[in-house]
């Protein structure tokens, strides 16, 4: 596969150099040890400045790289492409630990809002950027993390940067590499080339590739590709495989039309959402009674034939109920909430959309009904009934009528038959409605749930929790709290501390007690995690991302099947002291000041665990979790 | 319907080594020609956008190496091709005789659903050489072969002069348009909870 051959002698040069990669990597990765080289006149490996044609860009990035062939004798067409990159030739690589090149940092990766909210801020522009780029553009080559989806015939399906069609040649190159290895009855998993890792994931007729120089572990990048694939399955189900069986030429891009934003938002979340590597979900902190109340409403809906009912605030769970024996995997929750939050249409109108939960059943659709109560809080009902869709409009009209008519005795506290009768009566104004029909029952239950939630204090409590934030390292109790019950201990403690602004000012560079900067606690039994809010000195999005990447590395090393499992890890570098502690019940990841004392750090971790235990009723969804089935 | 959308066509170029496959592509995509011969290693990939009858096409051109030792790249390479271009040198009889092998090999490897009607295009290249005096394969002979294989469109080209190259590739787009599959509704199953055979996946299916 020459990407840019340039002299007659290069004829003899094999592009796939089967030499083992210089630095051995853990055996269990079963690496296909391939070194991709580019042929140039001298036959030297990796020295060519010309990526040419659609060659794989595996070179370490070079400052001040100039466009154009370095070998003047070249007669190849390959290096002569790339006129589109002229405008970006001045771009430089950012030193920041960032996925983009420096010039795009501002519009690209400013992300976390700060305390109490770890979701993308307004500064992150959703959707695909840099569509004008292709593989000949210098700026494109310098992006730190590329994601590609392509079909087994080499047709592009998705690219994080650049226009898919313009990248058709590049996509073909990726397919050629994969099929070359396949031809040798092997499977390509990883190519290392300088600072770059090229990670491959093959899922039947779908190929996923990540090219990254972010130094994330192979397992992390592979996990991200798995999620990307899961997101595609969520939108289309695995039935796409059948389309490829019938017709290898099948072009699935039309089926994915308009979903760029879903993928780009998922890729963005790899930077800020620990759920993407912890495989656990997180809850919005709420008083136990409030969460119970929300759960009771959802349970009523679930009993009427809904498979899953979720009340969520951004990507945090308020409450969640599953029908008997049905369990929802945290990855499915992540992909579902990403799909809903990134698709603008769910916000602007109540929507009913077919979705597939890849971990639940990757082959078939469910139907998701989504209703936003406010900008961040939404109710999701997952049903198996597609005809419910056709009743939606009627029910909606009916609901509006009920809301408008204050004279109507709509006894929502008494969610019984009178309520059903009322809805049926009103609905009958438009067309006959059979109250025994399961779909009708379902929608009536939904109406009831909505009204109950609107009238209860659940939604206002959700708002309050959003504003107040979650656990903060500064609030870590110095002495174990008395075991007496303290309702909503999180917020009560907040009152005891100084106001956040003054507080933040005074402790810059110090963090919490004993230099604790941040922690994540993951309950293994509940499949949930809680992460402390970010506070100084981990305040900028860059620092937060760097910390998450450090956690990611820690997570991978703790879960490494080859050398693990480990119970504790204490690691000190110039940025942090990282302490990880894994037991049967939980995993704790904590970051400290790099000068923190080891003994004190361990003691602090014990206190964090005690603290989490003390407030577990507020930060975790207890009992009602479908995982307890 | 969705006929306005851009179409991506995978085009495979096959033929003996030295017949000018790369030069044809280079002439077509970059409008450049070089007399210097350099063998293609494995395959080269090029992208060209073309407009035809109001529709935008992206041609993803797979320029393969003619040498036999690269043929092991095989099956996966040809998978999902929309069109196959067979190239021979009008001055070399052997390269014409081999067209049959190339065609058969492609049909075996790619195993298209309808091999009889799979869109091929045959190009007789290097018509410019020696003013046509060294030519050994007549147009008539080539056309007869094409007719016998289900009326494959035939073009005489010169990558050097740029003669007929554009027309040949336009024909590829035309062919693909003709063969565009009917849009089918995408209708995956819905989970049936009541049926008792609800699949409960507990882990990753990989």
Under the CATH scheme, which architecture of the largest domain in chain A would be assigned?
Answer: 2-Layer Sandwich
Oligomer: heterodimer
Low-confidence stretches of chain A: 1-97, 102-122, 405-418, 481-488, 491-509, 624-629
CATH architecture of chain B: 3-Layer(aba) Sandwich
Tell me about the largest β-sheet of chain B: 6 strands, mixed
Protein name (chain A): Vacuolar fusion protein MON1-like
Membrane topology (chain B): Lipid-anchor
Protein name (chain B): Ras-related protein Rab7
Keywords (chain B): GTP-binding, Lipoprotein, Membrane, Methylation, Nucleotide-binding, Prenylation, Protein transport, Transport
Keywords for this entry:
heterodimer; A: about 625 residues; Beta-Lactamase; Profilin-like; six-stranded mixed β-sheet; B: alpha/beta; Rossmann fold; 6 helices; 7 strands; P-loop_NTPase (chain B)
Describe the structure.
The complex is a heterodimer of chains A (629) and B (206). By secondary structure, chain A is an alpha+beta fold. Chain A has helices at 105-108, 138-142, 168-183, 218-236, 240-246, 260-272, 275-278, 288-303, 330-342, 344-348, 388-404, 417-428, 438-455, 458-468, 489-496, 500-506, 541-558, 598-614, 616-619; strands at residues 16-17, 35-36, 112-114, 117-120, 145-151, 156-159, 190-193, 196-203, 206-212, 281-282, 308-313, 316-322, 351-355, 364-372, 377-383, 516-523, 528-531, 568-572, 577-582, 586-592. Chain A has three domains: 8-62 and 124-263, 2-Layer Sandwich (Beta-Lactamase), CATH 3.30.450.70; 281-461, 2-Layer Sandwich (Beta-Lactamase); 469-628, YNR034W-A-like (Profilin-like, 3-Layer(aba) Sandwich). In chain A, strands 10-17-16-20-19-18 form a six-stranded mixed sheet, with helices on both faces. In chain A, strands 6-5-9-8-7 form a five-stranded antiparallel sheet, sandwiched between helices. In chain A, strand 14 (364-372) and strand 15 (377-383) form a beta hairpin. In chain A, helix 4 crosses helix 9 (330-342), helix 8 (288-303) packs antiparallel against helix 13 and helix 11 crosses helix 13. Chain A is globular. The relative contact order of chain A is 0.09. By secondary structure, chain B is an alpha/beta fold. Helix content of chain B is 27%, strand content 23%. Chain B has six helices and seven strands, in the order E-H-E-E-H-E-H-H-E-H-E-H-E. Chain B has a six-stranded mixed sheet with strand order 2-3-1-4-5-6, sandwiched between helices. In chain B, strand 5 (120-125), helix 5 and strand 6 form a beta-alpha-beta unit. Mean pLDDT of chain B is 81; it is low at 195-206. At the A-B interface, helix 3 and strand 14 of A face strand 1, helix 1, strand 2, strand 3 and helix 2 of B.
